Amino acid sequence: MRNSVPALQRRWVLGTIMVATFMVSIEATIVATAMPRIAGVLGGFSYYSWVFSAFLLAQSATTPIYGKLSDMLGRRPVLIAGILLFLAGSLLCGLSGSMTSLIAFRVLQGLGAGAIYPVAMTVIGDLYTMEERGKAQGMIAIVWAVSAVVGPLAGGIIIDGVSWAWIFWVNLPFGVLTIIGFLLFLHETVEPRRVGIDYAGAILFAIAIISLLAILTETDASGWVLAGLSFLFLVSAGLFVWQERRAAAPIISIELWTTRLIATSNAATLLAGMALIGLTTILPIYVQGVLGYSPITAGMTLTALVVGWPLAVMLSSRLFQTFGVRRTVRVGSLVFPFGAVFLLFLTPHSHPAVAGVASFLMGFGMGLVSITGIVLIQESVEWSMRGSATASIIFSRSLGNTLGAAALGAVLNTGIMHYGKGELAVKLHSLLNEPTGIAQLARNQDVRAVLFHALYWSFWGVVVVAVLAVVSSWLIPTLVKRNDAPAMKKTSVLARDKLDAYD
Predict the structure, then answer these.
(1) Per-residue pLDDT tens over the stretch 164-182
(2) pTM of the entire predicted model
(3) How far is residue 442 from each of residues 44, 289, 291, 411, 437, measured CA to CA in Å?
């Protein structure tokens, strides 16, 4: 496919992918910046983390399905279907009247987002060789950098100046442009294959993840409820593994995922995703609630994170050629926990710039881990498997985000109950549920102290997960061996030579 597509057409396709990437990336930064205020308007702060978790759960559960569908039906129809679902969810999110309805519509958004990023990255793998892909990914990185600057600023301006609904409605014009672009410029010849989708596996996976999230989120539930959820998780997870081993076309190929390259890349990406989403959800609360700064300032600390990520991607191709893949990813990944450690030096009187440094370093480390995994996995399989393989690492990141948002949200709520001891915890939750309550926290020293100590527990959680992510990244091989696994047997000799040359 790479050789049959004219250069001009490839540029138009890449431009359309950049618009789609901008739509998804700016959504993440805007929502994270605005959520403390939205939670105050709609009420229900106890469900704060579920606004993120619901989106990420739907995204995680559908990413492998979209990857397989793109291998069967082609990339374009799957991309367009995902964008339409995402836009429908965005429209309805802006019409939400409660946290419950917002969470429900975020699920619809997530169902669409499960297709956009992984299939778009697969298209880049289809159109560009390994040498060219660094430039293409660099263009995507520029989009992330621009959205990192524009997103938090736009989020702060929207939440302070107009209806919060525009936090979600801003996606609509970008989505329409991407649909038009893919219809006009992304042409492909695909021979349909009669391969069934493992819907039973998808349902069992969703049940297992939902029950796990409920265990992590509902920390104040009774022991019997938690025991029942734990039993449901164990049973559904066991049935899921059994189903995947017997399915003719499993949603997640155990054989594929147990190869060393994919297993270690996915493990590192999952753990890094857990740490990163934890930072994204708790840092705005710290900057606004503890330090007393505005939503715009809180958003700028997240801007540093999303600038660090694309910067690492832009530099990755040159670093690979100069130092080799293994040395680059191992040494570079150490930046990730180093940035997390900066969180432990935050105090109730710190300058937001300290939080910004932590965000930048963690984003840079995550960028190196992520791009290395995607490039190596895409080069290790042929076209008919590239969608599923690419989806596996995007799925791992989404699953890590899902688990991280729930787990660190649970840590935060537990910390509030531990340090609040009754009235202070009630007062803190009451302020967080008011439209302007988070702005009042900095003037209430007792409640502010409770929030800070609870957040500090979450900071420690981010550090621990970041260290585990680095351990996993050091195990990633940079050369796919001929006998690595049955799923890798179709790897071309040329691809293996390229990977060996970069090592």
Answers:
(1) 888 889 889 999 999 999 9
(2) 0.72
(3) 21, 6, 6, 21, 10
